[in-house]
Amino acid sequence: MPHEKFQSCIDACYACATECDHCAASCLAEQDVKSMARCIKLDMDCAQICRLAASYMARGSEFAQALCRLCADVCQACGDECAKHQMDHCQRCAEACRKCAEECRRMAQMA
């Protein structure tokens, strides 16, 4: 079953999507929201692609490998941006993004 083979990547994708959603919402509550604009945009992009990649892996899509490569790139960009901000929600998001990028790269090489 495809979802069992890639379960750790699927789990990392869902965890990352959750952290990105939380980070975006928390950034919107920051004092200087304008300075968080890129972070919020990347959080939204990352959450969406993580959920999409997880669903492609779960059903064994022939495009899962290519999508996971792109997901890793988006996660890396989001993690790099979040790491620039000292807020706890950004730091937790950066860590989840790094882990997801690593899992997605590993999946793309295995598949």
UniProtKB/TrEMBL annotation:
Pfam families in the record: Csp (PF03860)
Signal peptide interval: none
Family annotation (CDD domains): DUF326
Superkingdom, taxonomy of origin: Bacteria
Name of the protein described by the UniProt record: Four-helix bundle copper-binding protein
